[in-house]
Amino acid sequence: MAAVKMYTTQVCPYCVRAKSLLKQRGVAQIEEIRIDLDPSARDAMMALTGRRTVPQIFIGETHVGGCDDLIALDQKGGLQSLLQAA
User: Fold this and answer.
1) According to the 3-state scheme, what is the secondary structure of 16-56?
2) Closest C-alpha to 79, from 9, 24, 15, 16
3) For 24-77, what is each residue's pLDDT tens digit?
């Protein structure tokens, strides 16, 4: 299973929803980077993604995007294959 990294904040309903979907799809461990605790992590996230909202989700080396992007990928059937590919 591919490594999953997610930039999050503590009180983010979209982060909770994304984590829930990933766990339903068999992801046991998510590397969470809390940008509310580490301002330099927010800067790094913005440099990597060009976005300032959370969550920002990476599966392996692939930037999936935010929660809506993750759900859309899952609905198209692409999430499982991406999780298995890496």
Assistant:
1) HHHHHHHHHCCCCCEEEEECCCCHHHHHHHHHHHCCCCCCE
2) 24
3) 999 999 999 999 999 999 999 999 999 999 999 999 999 999 999 999 999 999
Token pair, residue 65, equals 């995007």
Q: Is the pLDDT of residue 86 over 60?
A: no
Residue 69: left if φ>0, alpha if ψ -120 to 50, beta else—which one?
alpha
- How many helices (H) and strands (E) the chain has is answered by 4, 4
Q: pTM for the complete prediction? A: 0.94
Q: Residue 2: how many CB atoms within 10 A of its CB?
A: 15
CB 78 within 8 A of CB 25: no
